[in-house]
Design goal:
This protein is α+β, with helices and mostly antiparallel strands. The chain is built from 14 helices and 15 strands. The chain has two domains: 92 residues, Phosphorylase Kinase, domain 1; 245 residues, Transferase(Phosphotransferase) domain 1 (Transferase(Phosphotransferase), domain 1, Orthogonal Bundle), CATH 1.10.510. Bound molecules: adenosine-5'-diphosphate and magnesium ion.
Length: 400
């Protein structure tokens, strides 16, 4: 098996060099990217087409990022995740940036792995719904530099009790934009990228409320000939993990589809994936979805101010995405249903495609007991991010 990331610090230079020799396309168009991957670019592009550009990100010196963040001033600290601190900064040309400092000791393998995962995945991505990487810095510590989001994450906006509730139109727009970003990661960019930690605090908002997927610390490449990977340890966010990932460490696009379903529920309900009393959003929402009680699902802070038809549609897509059998979840990118006319795509459904209930009915044989046992957090630990050894092997599996 080919390693997808390098472990030793001395490998950074090699990694940076190898990445900067690859050539992502210049436009954010998913079809353009896919053509480049398939090698169609050279055959079909007219002679006058501009040559493919090298990645637009660059290496920053420590002095540059220290100056930009005012010496990592406490007042510039805008976010703290499970493994990082994020500071607001400003470049000499006035551009606002977010500087993400990877936490942990310099010998910490996870720190390097997260850094390389993020650099090696989002460094290739160019899409309006994916947070743009501007560069990195490996002087003294490990830093990633991104465009700054003044609005912060969807979680910060959605769950902030002190601000007016986020309106329905914004929530629906965030659902559709995030689906576009995921579709691009799964199909549109150079190689299949599985994010593995889709959730509201990892989706940032632009000034005009466009969502941008961020935090690629757990992301994985998936070679095109592989059906999935089996990964250990299992990491991610409790309440957002697909059953096949939680139990066997199996990761593929459907891992993200499941988490996207939970994200849709977050948007509809305004609830967190796991609440203060350790009850999961999934276990609370499932019976309401099953009984079609959409009004009971919708965030009470919205009152009557939401489009019932749209809410039903988003809830319907969420219910499909959180299905226990991965094969019966829709795909972000293509129809999974044989003998139907292509109505299997998440984005299509969210954007108003015809919903035919009969197409989505699972055959009796495929209906499995919902995995209730992992929905609610039963221990005393408040921490929602976790990391546990996988019960399965860590080897990757190829399709035949
Ligand atoms: N580009 C950005 N602009 C503004 N805030 C950001 C940006 N990137 C991250 N943040 C803030 O920092 C938090 C942690 O960042 P994240 O990349 O998710 O780190 P972690 O891997 O530690 O979870 C986010 O939830 C968000 O609030
Ligand atoms: Mg995060």
């Amino acid at each position: 098996m080919k390693p997808l990331y390098l472990r030793s610090s001395s490998s950074f230079k090699r990694l940076l060099l190898s990445i900067s020799h690859r050539s992502p396309p210049t436009t954010p168009s998913p079809t353009h990217d896919a053509a480049a991957v398939a090698g169609e670019e050279e055959e079909e592009a007219p002679p006058e087409s501009p040559p493919l550009k090298k990645p637009t990100w660059r290496c920053f010196s420590y002095d540059e990022i220290e100056r930009a963040t005012g010496g990592f001033r406490e007042t510039n600290l805008v976010g703290r995740g499970g493994s990082s601190e994020v500071y607001r900064g400003e470049l000499p040309d006035g551009r606002a940036v977010a500087v993400k400092r990877l936490m942990g000791s310099s010998a910490c393998e996870r720190r390097e792995r997260d850094f390389l995962a993020e650099l090696g995945t989002v460094g290739h991505a160019r899409h309006p719904n994916v947070c743009a990487l501007l560069g990195c810095c490996v002087d003294r510590d490990l830093y990633l530099v991104f465009d700054f989001s003044h609005r912060g994450s969807v979680a910060a906006n959605l769950h902030d009790e002190g601000s007016p509730a986020m309106g329905w139109a914004a929530r629906r727009g965030i659902a559709v934009g995030t689906a576009r970003g995921l579709e691009y990661l799964h199909k549109g960019c150079q190689r299949r990228i599985i994010h593995r930690d889709i959730k509201a605090s990892n989706v940032l908002l632009t000034d005009d409320l466009q969502p941008q997927i961020s935090d690629f610390g757990l992301a994985k490449w998936l070679p095109s000939e592989w059906t999935h990977r089996a990964i250990a340890p299992i990491e991610g966010t409790f309440g957002c993990l697909a059953p096949e990932y939680y139990t066997h460490g199996i990761v593929d696009e459907k891992t993200d589809v499941f988490a996207f379903g939970v994200f849709l529920l977050e948007l509809i309900t305004g609830r967190k994936p796991v609440d203060g009393s350790h009850r999961s959003l999934l276990s609370w929402a499932r019976p309401l979805l099953a009984d079609g009680k959409i009004d009971a699902l919708v965030d009470p802070r919205l009152g009557e101010s939401y489009d019932g038809e749209e809410a039903r549609r988003v809830a319907f897509v969420a219910a499909l995405c959180i299905r226990a059998p991965a094969t019966w979840r829709p795909s972000m990118t293509e129809s999974v249903w044989i003998n139907t006319d292509g109505a299997g795509q998440v984005l299509e459904l969210l954007e108003g495609g015809e919903i035919r209930q009969d197409q989505w009915a699972m055959p009796e044989a495929d209906v499995v007991e919902e995995p209730w046992w992992f929905d609610d957090l039963e221990d005393e630990d408040e921490e929602e991010e976790f990391n546990t050894p996988s019960p399965s092997s860590s080897s990757s599996t190829t399709s035949n």
